[in-house]
Amino acid sequence: MSKKLGYVSLGCAKNLVDTEVMLGALQANDYEITDTLAEAELIIVNTCTFIEKAKEESINTILEVAEYKKFGNCKALIVAGCLSQQYQEELFAEIPEIDALIGTGSWNRIMEAVEAVADGKRACIMDSMSNIYDERMPRMQTTPQYSAYVKIAEGCNNGCTFCIIPKVRGAFRSRPIESIVDEVTKLAARGVKEIVLIAQDTTQYGADLNNGTPMLTELLRELVKVDGIHWYRLLYLYPKHFSDELLDFIVNEPKICNYIDLPLQHINTDILRRMNRKDTRDDIEQLLTKVRAKANHVTLRTSFIVGFPGETTQDFEQTMKLIADVNFDMSYSFIFSARPGTPAADMVDDVPEADKKQRLYILQERINQQAMAWSRRMLGTVQRILVEGTSRKNIM
After folding, report:
1. In this structure, what DSSP letter does residue 175 have?
2. Which residues are CB-contacts of 150 (< 8 A; sequence separation ≥ 6)?
3. 32: which strand partners?
4. CA 143 to CA 23: how far, in whole Å?
5. pLDDT exceeds 70 at position 1
6. What is the mean pLDDT of residues 346-362?
7. 40-91 pLDDT, tens per residue?
8. Whole-angstrom Cα distance, residue 323 to residue 364?
9. Buried b vs exposed e over 13-26: b needs ≥16 C-beta within 10 Å?
10. What global pTM score does this model have?
11. Which of 19, 177, 242, 263 meets the CB 3.0–4.6 Å disulfide criterion with 9?
12. Number of other residues whose CB lies within 10 A of the CB of residue 298
């Protein structure tokens, strides 16, 4: 008889892929997924800790889900992901309802955790952060049938001073091209039409396999040969390894969306240096000039941090000038929050909270205005789209 399994996956798409692999393993062991957490005998919460708000959301979610042990059918609560990796002792001590913790490199041992809990033990499984899933592992797709995420690399070597990812995800490691192509081929056979390629630093893909030289363009050349996939979308293309060859391929290959997700964080060179970013203002501006010089419009999404230690009004105005000059289409931006265990947490946080909030509001308002202006320019044009379904709102 199958057992009911519920889950909550928080944070980024990379985390969601880990969730799907764990669900695939559980499904292969006679667990049935339920959308009603009150019915679930086993609940998994896959957590995020990238910024303070993500950490708070993860903790609040664990506490909410723990209530199902009192008022639902839950017999076991397993917490996985970045929060588990970073705060093992604290989570076990402060939330006794947690039955098992799974680290970011241990998702493949999910059944071991389940069996330990069934035996009345409290399990904490934290392997070295060197694992990365491949096409041979069972995976339960939780996204709509037509679209799927494919993780092409794991971890990060960049060492940005504000970021905890290298400590909770490990060193950068790429999957072989053949493994990725095989997985995409299988997804295409299941009816997937759109593939979203993800990694912490996608433009660095393959550098660890190729004597330091990235191989993203080579990977894309192979992927566009897969029948059945209509387009690919690329997330988290860091500026450092963004070559002219890659830009040309994105713009000219019909199967690659003219969409560049370019996390910049700032434009002032001194701030970038304190962030330990690998680019200067000149590097970034040269790249963006090349992107905007292309005949085909490229949708540019970015991210900025406002209120980083030492950021002056003049530094912030440099970012605003860049936004005005480049005309970004969208942005996911946030206020600096010190993450314990990062170098930036030891810096003097000298930007008043009110100034941080005001800067974020000004920045996001400008981005939103630019996005709306571009949307209006699209009126009357003909575009190739992916139909997701019938709208719940009748706008005609």
Report:
1. P
2. 17, 180, 183, 184, 187, 195, 196, 197, 198
3. 4
4. 13
5. no
6. 95
7. 999 999 999 888 888 999 999 999 999 999 998 999 999 999 999 999 889 9
8. 10
9. bbbbbbbbbbbbbb
10. 0.92
11. 19
12. 18
